[in-house]
């Protein structure tokens, strides 16, 4: 007789799941047993830590639009995986986390590794549920899939009691995935939005989020270009618009360029598409007044819970962003210079002084802009080093960037592995700080095992750069807890079967990168970066001197 694990896996295959990331555990042995018989329809990627597995699932959801599947054991497995759940929620990406649970006969006794998953994940996930009865597996999986992918996409956590999974489950499985359509905008809502834009003097489009279709992106770009309205991407979503378009003018995120800050502050009408107004995009909620911004905000979102959550819009439209973009018609106004000046400022933002470092990341970034293929994928975790993929590369219509809105260190390498699993033929480049890389460097083994080996660029300056920057600005010359002694990263990479080498000078980088591109086993390039080169336009010493001067010290 079929057991619960088999029914669950049959339902996942019917829903369209093709890859699952996880670490095996005794609490969901029946589910692992069922994966044995799928004939490759649902592959299990065996990771080295549940945090890495959850990051891979979150990245899969962001890259493909389909729920990333993660499977972990109870207790420690679930708590390790929680970082990926938090990241998926802040990124607004679909994900399903399956967690083994103690048997139903032991619940509530603080049994071995027991957790109350509804309580633990209730404020972290979009939905947290436990399946007590195997008969309800198809019902709950269908609901979880829909919940994860509709409205504002997000993660769903599903707890699986061990006896439910291993017990009999001779019930019909799901046969197909649900077909869901986003709410469409009314003609009246579109007309109101266009009237507000047409009456503006300084209109701005602010876009972000996931679930953009090719048709939606193309329609919005055509509208922006024809209407001559500048487009700003929300934090780490610049890959959702062609950066080569004359309408694209930059990203509103960490290290926001002055011209982007000025655009948001000085715009009189902002068309906000598919974004949640997060702290980074609003510069800590200072660019628009809470809750009544002086700018007229047209907020379009598929989730009614996002509209008015922070800012009261002049016009809130509960609709899918793709359908709304395709319903727009060009508007005309006297703002051509507004857009042209913004584009010129964006182009000028790539000009930065030579860095005081053995390897100059300004030069490295310029080289990568020239040599990366048009469908490249970059990934990054968190740290000052992210300025290079986030602000010094251009993303065309076929390029993608995977970076966590949550600011989670350690995301970049697992995300790059997930990207290579999804698109093995594409060039995937992971940018990682030395601290960031060591959060999940063990996943190099996962990459090697499954032939999903990206190119990893370690921006190695021997410090936790972001925290050191804050230290020098607030507590200058009082270094505490931010210096690192690192291993030989090139040797570590070779131990995992990667090509690994140390890049000692800027001049050495092009040849090293060519070798990385040619490697059949992926590559790790350890870049020698000076701690002084902490930001593109201010050195560590300059930060310290400015902070000391502000305190009246020398």
Mean pLDDT: 96
N- to C-terminal distance: 79 Å
What percent of residues adopt helix (DSSP H or I)? 25-40%
Give me the Rg, rounded.
Answer: 24 Å
**How many alpha or pi helices?**
21
Poorly predicted spans: none
Structural class: alpha/beta
Q: What is the strand content?
A: 15-25%
How is this structure best summarized?
The chain has 554 residues and is α/β, with parallel strands linked by helices.
Question: Would you give an account of this structure?
Answer:
The chain has 554 residues and is α/β, with parallel strands linked by helices. It has helices at 4-15, 29-35, 50-64, 76-91, 117-121, 137-149, 162-166, 187-198, 214-227, 258-266, 321-327, 336-348, 361-371, 387-391, 412-422, 434-437, 444-449, 465-474, 489-495, 509-518, 540-550; strands at 19-22, 43-46, 68-72, 95-101, 127-130, 155-161, 203-207, 231-234, 248-252, 269-273, 296-301, 315-318, 377-380, 400-402, 428-433, 455-460, 499-503, 523-528. The strands form 3 sheets. The chain has a 6-stranded parallel sheet, with helices on both faces.
Properties at a glance:
554 residues, alpha/beta, 21 helices
Topology:
Elements: H1 4-15, E1 19-22, H2 29-35, E2 43-46, H3 50-64, E3 68-72, H4 76-91, E4 95-101, H5 117-121, E5 127-130, H6 137-149, E6 155-161, H7 162-166, H8 187-198, E7 203-207, H9 214-227, E8 231-234, E9 248-252, H10 258-266, E10 269-273, E11 296-301, E12 315-318, H11 321-327, H12 336-348, H13 361-371, E13 377-380, H14 387-391, E14 400-402, H15 412-422, E15 428-433, H16 434-437, H17 444-449, E16 455-460, H18 465-474, H19 489-495, E17 499-503, H20 509-518, E18 523-528, H21 540-550
Parallel strand pairs: 1-2, 1-3, 3-4, 4-6, 5-6, 7-8, 7-10, 8-9, 10-11, 11-12, 13-14, 13-15, 15-16, 16-18, 17-18
